[in-house]
Amino acid sequence: VALRLYNTATRTKEDFVPIDPAHVRMYVCGPTVYDFAHIGNARPVIVFDVLYRLLRHLYPRVTYVRNITDVDDKINARAARDFPELPLNEAIRRVTEATNAQFQADVAALGALPPTVQPRATEHIAEMIEIIARLIARGHAYAAEGHVLFDVPSDADYGKLARRSLDEMQAGARVEVAPYKRDAMDFVLWKPSTEEEPGWDSPWGRGRPGWHIECSAMSWRHLGETFDIHGGGIDLVFPHHENEVAQTTCAFGHPRMANVWMHNGFLQVEGEKMSKSLGNFYTIRELLDDWPGDVLRLTMLKTHYRQPIDWTQRAMEESRAELDGWRRLMHGTVVGEPPAAFVEALSDDLNTAQALTVLRALAKSGDAAGLAGALALIGFDDFVAGASAGAVQNGWMPQQAPGYDTSLVERLVAERLAARKARNFAESDRLRDELAALGIQLKDGKDPATGEPVTTWEAMR
Ligand code: AMP
Ligand code: ZN
After folding, report:
1. How far apart are CA 329 and CA 62, in angstroms?
2. Closest ligand relative to 273 C-alpha
3. Looking at beta carbons, which pairs linking 395-401 to residues 24 or more positions away fall under 8 Å?
4. Atom of ligand 1 nearest to the CA of 274
5. Contact 317, 292 (CB under 8 A)
6. How far apart are CA 446 and CA 440, in angstroms?
7. Is the peptide bond before 239 cis (omega within 30 degrees of 0)?
8. What confidence tens digit (pLDDT) does each residue in 379-406 have?
9. Rounded to two decimals, what is the model's pTM?
10. Which of 90, 175, 196, 438 could make an SS bond with 86 (beta carbons 3.0 to 4.6 A apart)?
């Protein structure tokens, strides 16, 4: 199967040609850990998890790096607000550790594999300083008033990734003109820290990094000077990724930082931009209180990753019903190979919408083994394991809501009772098994008043 990926750098879908076919290398910009991740943040996590799984299916070795941004002025502000009584550095540590633990738990519940490496910015300050020193030595950066700035006009390729004109970029940059900048577009690599602010010693004084330099440092350390795939949300193309490219290519002298640049489209909720003031802002955690992670994952994959996605209650309900149907079909099945048509759809620029169409056809034709293999490939492995073993597993159980659909259980219990009354014991036993597969235990008895058979039920755990 030939993998084709849309490359933001060339604005075309291209055959994917790894630098080293024995070892594919991918970097994705991760979270800034100062607050709960929202359902929009879940999109790159799920999308690039599916790509990671597909790459592992196609290639012998894949290194996937997703960083943790644990130095940022938003983190500092949060720390000062939440723990005013603590020294700032201690408060920052509390904020970033708690937020990171929360993020890891959230994305695990969405079925995302841990990346190969999850480097933290604060553990790569030495690499950042090294890159900044190289940029100064090569004439691409300059120190001024405790800051170090990237000299944008020194880089003839600046703006090529985002395809922005000089005028557009300058218009955007004028907002933050500072006296120490030679050009309005120049961006910060290093800035001074006050006594209370977090800071590290550097050749330019005690300070902290600008936002963009960390990704150049962490991708260099863990993937090398140039690697295969770089991903993130579409909002990161400019300025973040443009600046990463400028830093890395100018520091190391390669024409490219990454060969393929991939960006997911934005998520909105019920047709509107998600925002706290509109009351349509959902953290992953809140949604996991009401829905199994698999429902959220499936809902995310129904839309092709480059399209905008409209997140709705209705879509989650539909996903839940679909998963219920698949689970019943896979009861007792052996997990098969993912069918070729399914892998082909995914290999066409991660066309999960088309892959799900293939998957529905598998379900319709009763190919439970193929269905299970296909679902496992895109990260429903716990769900498949639970369904095929006939047990309701952790991966499927939501945190608080029941792991079964109550109305479905009620219906099956009623059908079974009717079968019992009709003395159709084969059907009655079949329904008992089906309910057991949902984790439901039955208790048969007689209504003491009328003598009629009755059945009560409870969840097994
Ligand atoms: P941030 O923590 O804001 O840097 O975002 C982390 C990741 O989530 C980045 O890759 C963003 O592009 C992505 N992201 C943020 N908001 C959304 C959204 N509404 N839809 C899709 N992706 C988003
Ligand atoms: Zn980045």
Report:
1. 33
2. 1
3. 395/111, 395/293, 395/294, 396/292, 396/294, 396/327, 397/292, 398/288, 398/289, 398/290, 398/291, 398/292, 398/293, 399/109, 399/288, 399/289, 400/289, 400/290, 401/289, 401/290, 401/291, 401/292
4. 19
5. no
6. 19
7. yes
8. 999 999 988 886 444 333 333 345 567 7
9. 0.84
10. 90
DSSP line for 88-153: HHHHHHHHHHHHHHHHHHHHHHTTPPPPSB--BGGG-HHHHHHHHHHHHHTTSEEEETTEEEE-GG
User: Any idea which ligand is nearest the CA of 39?
Assistant: 1
Residue (of 298, 393, 401) closest to 42 by Cα position = 298
> Do 449 and 461 meet the contact criterion of CB atoms below 8 Å apart?
no
Tell me how far apart the alpha carbons of residues 437 and 391 are, in angstroms, rounded to a whole number: 5
Q: Which of 386, 380, 398, 395 is nearest to 437 (CA)?
A: 386
Token couple for 137? 């030595």
Q: Could you report the per-residue pLDDT of 172-198, keeping only the tens digit for each?
A: 766 667 889 999 899 999 999 998 889
CA distance 278 to 285: 19
Q: Helix or strand or coil: residue 233?
A: strand
SS3 state at 387: helix
- Give, as one character, the DSSP assignment of residue 195: S
Q: Which of 43, 78, 236, 281 to mutate to test the pocket of ligand 1 (most atoms within 8 A of CB)?
A: 43
CB atoms within 10 A of CB 174: 10
450-453: which pairs have CB atoms within 8 A and are 24 or more residues apart?
453/417, 453/420, 453/421
Residue holding tokens 């990463």?
A: 244
130-160 confidence digits (pLDDT tens): 999 999 999 999 999 999 999 999 999 999 9
Cβ contacts of residue 389 below 8 Å, gap of 6+? none
Amino acid, res. 108: A
**DSSP-derived 3-state class of residue 186:** coil
CA angle, corner 235, sides to 229 and 237, nearest 5?
45
What pLDDT digit, counting tens, does each position of 207-239 carry?
Answer: 999 999 999 999 999 999 999 999 999 999 999
Q: Give the separation between CA 231 and CA 349, rounded to whole angstroms.
A: 13
Q: How many angstroms separate the alpha carbon of residue 260 from the centre of ligand 2? A: 14
Which residue has the least CA distance to atom 9 on ligand 1?
233
- Residue 14 Cα to ligand 2 midpoint, Å, equals 23
Q: How far is CA 132 from CA 210, 220, 225, 226, in A?
A: 11, 13, 14, 17
State the Cα angle at 419 between 416 and 421, rounded to 5°.
Answer: 110
The total number of residues written for the chain in this structure: 461
* Atom of ligand 1 lying closest to residue 32 CA: 2
Tell me how far the alpha carbon of residue 452 lies from the centroid of ligand 2, in angstroms. Answer: 67
Residue 376 CA, distance from chain mean position: 17
